[in-house]
Amino acid sequence: MPATPPPSPHNPSERHPKEEDPDKLGPDTLGPDTLGAEDLTYLAATEKLLLAVDFDGTLAEFSDSPTDVRAVPGALEALQELAGLPGVTVLIISGRQLRELSAVTGLPVLDSPGPDDIRLVGSHGAEDSLSGSAAAANEAVGSAAVGTADGSVNPTPSARAEVLQKLGEHAEQIAATDRGMWVEYKPYSVGLHTRQAASPEAAQQANQRLAEFAATCSTPAVPVQVTWGRDILELSVATATKGSYVAGLRTQLPEHVVFFLGDDVTDETVLASLTQPRPDVGVHVGGRLADTTAATRSLGSPFNVRDTLQQLAELRR
Ligand SMILES: [Mg+2]
Description:
By secondary structure, this protein is α/β, with parallel strands linked by helices.
C-alpha cells in the first residue's frame, strides 16, 4: 500500500447540500447529522440487528497509557444488555490485539460465543473468537495461518514474521530518536505511537519515514498496509480490515441491519461498506474526521455512545 496519508472517502459537499447555503457555513454544519431519536426508533424496530462498535475513542476515552484505558461507565453494561435481547448480535471490533482487547474490556475471548455474548474482534478483524484465533492471539506470528471472516487466508507465518521483524527494527530506530515515541507489537502489525512525541511535526516526520520504509518492505506475497491512525502509524501484514471482517460476517447474517460506531480512519473501512442512512446506520464518533467520514450520523463522545446504547436497549426491551 502506498505510504500516503489517508484519502478522503468521499467529497463531503456531495452529501451535505445544506452546506451550500452560505448563511449556514461554519463548524456546526460540517459533517454528518447527529444521531437522533428517529434513528433510535428505527434501530429499535429492526428485527435483526448487528451492532458493531469500535473500542478506543468510541466506547472509551483516550489515555496516554493504552493499558489503562477503560470503557466509560455503563457502556459495556448497555452492550451486554443489548447482546441478551432477541435479534441483536453484538461485537466489539478493535485495532488492539485480541488478548489486549479482552484485558481492557474485562470480557473473555470465547471459543464459541453464543447469541447473548459480546464477541471480541482484534487486530482490525484479523483475530476473532470464531476463527480459532484465541490461539493466534497467544502465539502471535508463530501460529498457523489464520482464515479471516471473508474467507481469505493470510500469508504464511514465516514470511510475515520476517517482514514484521524488519518493520519493528526500523520503528525502534525511529522511536529511539524521541523519548515520547514507542513501538507496539501485535500479532500482525507494528505500531509507532506518537501521542507523546516532542511535537506534532516530529510525529509527522517520524511517521513519514516509517511509512516510506514500509513501502519498500511491501511485496505481493506479503503486502504491508500502512494506516495513519490517531497518534499511531500502524504497519500491518494482515489482509483483514475492519471493513472486510464486517462484510464477511454479514454474509453469514444476511438479514441483519448493521449499526456501526467508530472514531478513526480504520473504522472508515466499515462505514464505507454500509448502505446508509438506511437500512444500515453508520456513526462517526468524536468529530475528528467530520469532513471526510463516510458515516451519515455522528455522536460527540464515548459518553454519547453510552447514552445511545442505553436508550436503544430501553427501546428494544
Ligand atoms: Mg477507535
